[in-house]
Write the structure tokens for this entry.
Amino acid sequence: MQTTKTLLIVYHSMTGGTLQMAQAACEGASQEPGVQVHLVHASAAGPADVLAADGFIFATPENLAAMSGQLKDFFDRTYYAALDHLNGRAYACLVCAGSDGSNAVRQIERIATGWRLRAVAEPLIVRTHAQAPEAILAPKQIGPDDLERCAAMGRALAAGLEMGVF
């Protein structure tokens, strides 16, 4: 008898870009019938959500060359409760960035290393090229090609969970 796997997608979004990316990953992952997908805002996700998940996607905007404060708060609130309980579980990350995104990825990777999670996909960074304050604060619209890349990541992670690959 096959048991249902759980994929937890934790996100924070200020201008809608990261939310669109997380929703696309959720829609892609939801195509796998043996995987329950939970899309949860970082402020609402807690230790019980983390401990119940078989895999993770962490999605954040890059704010001032870092992951968002709300995603950092999520990690602060859940880190020690989950420490040594997640070893080997799969994860991937999505970053919506104005120009770079690599430091937000590095921060998530360091936390994932502490949790002993296993990266199963290259980090997906969508660059909006927003540089001026007005553009940075403006609502974002992520293009269809980038949303398909997010959906593909969700599908792949869910398929791997369902098949027992990770």
User: Anything to note?
Assistant: Helices lie at 17-29, 47-52, 69-82, 102-115, 133-137, 144-163. The domain at 5-163 is CATH 3.40.50.360 (Rossmann fold).
